[in-house]
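fyi for ur records
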Amino acid sequence: AMVLDTSRSTMDPSGSDINGNGVIGERNTDAKRSIFAPANTDPGDSILAAEVAAAREIVRGLDPRSTRVSLIAFAGEPPGAGGGAFGRTPQPPAVTLEPLTSEFERIDAALDELLASDPLGSTHMAAGVDQATIELTGLSGARSTPHPDRARVVFFFTDGQPTLPHGPGFEADNVRSVLRAADRAQRAGIRIHSFAIGAEALEGPLAVVELARRTGGQFMPIRRPGDLAHAVEEISVADISEIRLRHRTTGEAARHLLRKSDGAWAGLVQLQPGENEIAVTARASEGSEATQVIRIHFRREAPDPEIPQRFFERRNRLFELCLSQLKQVNIRLERERNAKVRRELRLEIERERERARRRAGAQRKRLEISITEAEDPAL
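which gave:
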């Protein structure tokens, strides 16, 4: 389950060009602007946009054959808000936008809708955690049908501190509500990876830190919201800490190795004509290891095998890494060549300088010109 903070503060600028339009959104400080005008000069660069970009990155790292994803948003109204701001019907503090599904295009569409909405309300972290627990366990009110033998993981994003359910001024009570929600998740076998985004969240991070600690997840402090999409790549849903890929015959390791958060991997290994044995070793987070050997027969004259559609993206990414490495190698070789040329040029200059000095001495002697005469500007 991906749980995104959609409270009002998430419309603030992230400080990065999230939507890639070449403009970095800033806080709208125009005193004449309408109260309905956006607080961010480029809403596509908001903190919410950074959360959505991170959620998309997570989905790209998952295999729909083995993983289902749910999308949940949380915010909430302060106690006594009544009908909500500007007469709105008050919304539940946490909403399942998409139940568990392996149709990732549904998640992508829900993220589009979320990004197009206006962030509103306060920060009800406990409601977001409880909603994820409901969906992942199939408790009353769930829209998802859980599989009892599946690992249950939550990616939890927030840019603030809990201000609900008790409202502002009740910091300790609001934090305790989050801790109780974390304990409920832990008893349900759920692991929460929590992300504290930006200065405000990191000013009082107790609730977010404890979400991860109490459930065995990872806590990720993100000072710059624009770094969020990169930070999620560090989290492994499959609890795999390392993948090693090696050619058993030659002893060479993979030139490039890609890992996805659900444990899927892809590597580039130099094959030899004939039989090849490729050893794949995986290390789990708790330290255990397993190795599997893949045997490949390589014939240069054989046609290229058909590659399944699901492998295209990883194959292309490996090729991109090869091209990038080749460019770096070419740049390095060019620099080395230039450095060699400069060294040889310096040596040649020194040799020619010494020869010129000797020839000048011989010429001076032949012309009977003294050093004093040659250096006298009056001559």
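The CA atoms of residues 2 and 71 lie 5 Å apart. thats all i got for now
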